[in-house]
Specification:
The chain has about 240 residues and is mostly helical. It folds into two domains: about 55-165, Orthogonal Bundle (Cyclin A, domain 1); about 175-235, no CATH class. The chain contains eleven helices and three strands; from the N terminus they run αααββααβαααααα. The protein has helices at about 5-10, 20-30, 35-55, 95-105, 110-125, 135-140, 145-160, 165-170, 175-185, 190-200, 205-235; strands at about 65-70, 85-95, 130. The chain has a three-stranded antiparallel beta sheet with strand order 2-1-3, covered by helices on one side. α9 (about 175-185) runs antiparallel to α10 (about 190-200) and α9 packs across α11 (about 205-235). The termini are far apart. The mean pLDDT is about 80.
Length: about 240
């Protein structure tokens, strides 16, 4: 059957693409990947990774950058290295117009920088990832201890939680979130869903902490009952 002239002239243009070049490369250099379907899936996944890790610069606004953060839903493992940890590219706003406004209004540099750090943590969390204090310190070229101290002070002043990797994934010394979760339940009588939303945790994680709290309270109560029992019998 005679080919349509459009097919003859324009079909070769379909081969002038990134996918076509990559398909040729994979087929040539990795012949053990048998079958066009396998190669096609491999090419599609590789393209997805390229688009995620190397977005066009027009996608970024002035003052923004791409940073690799740990996926918020990543499961932890004992001595799991960062190379074995699932990461996710996120867009972070290093310099925001609000920062300039604060400079003009005479806000202290330390406060401007602290608010910018909080913004970085929040932006990553909104995109399904988590930053560590080391991440923010590296981006800002400051000591990690300074980031930790200022963020902890901010959380205490604002009675809120900043979604850091330490608090979300229970790593390092960032354990104050447990006390915050328990306080919201005991003193504010908030529901699991409310606590989860306010502390950037899953409902399952909140329930786990509250279960641990309940066990501690029960143990403490049993100990007090036992002590009262002993006191009563000693007085007899």
């Amino acid at each position: 059957m005679k080919q349509d002239w459009r097919t003859t002239y324009y079909r070769p243009m379909m081969g002038k693409s990134f996918e076509a070049a990559l398909t040729q490369f994979v087929t040539r250099e990795f012949p053990f990947l048998q079958g066009t379907m396998v190669v096609s899936l491999f090419v599609k996944e590789l393209r997805r990774l390229v688009e995620a890790y190397y977005p066009p610069t027009s996608y970024l606004r002035p003052g923004q950058m791409i940073w690799l953060a740990v996926n918020k839903n990543e499961k932890l493992g004992y001595k799991k290295s960062i190379t074995e940890t699932k990461t996710k590219p996120v867009v972070l706003t290093i310099l925001h117009p609000d920062d300039i406004s604060k400079y003009l209004n005479g806000v202290l540099l330390g406060d401007i920088r602290r608010d910018a750090w909080v913004r970085l943590f929040q932006e990553a969390e909104e995109q399904g990832a988590v930053l560590s204090e080391i991440d923010v310190a590296t981006i800002s070229k400051v000591c990690p201890t300074l980031v930790s101290r200022r963020i902890r002070a901010y959380e205490k002043e604002q009675r809120t939680m900043v979604p850091r990797r330490g608090t979300i994934h229970d790593l390092g010394r960032s354990v104050s979130h447990k006390a915050t979760i328990c306080r919201k339940k005991l003193t504010e009588n908030k529901s699991t869903s409310q606590i989860a939303q306010e502390t950037h945790h899953t409902p399952e994680a909140v329930d786990r902490y509250l279960k641990g709290l309940s066990q501690v309270v029960d143990l403490h109560q049993k100990r007090n009952d036992h002590q009262r029992y002993l006191v009563c019998h000693l007085d007899e």
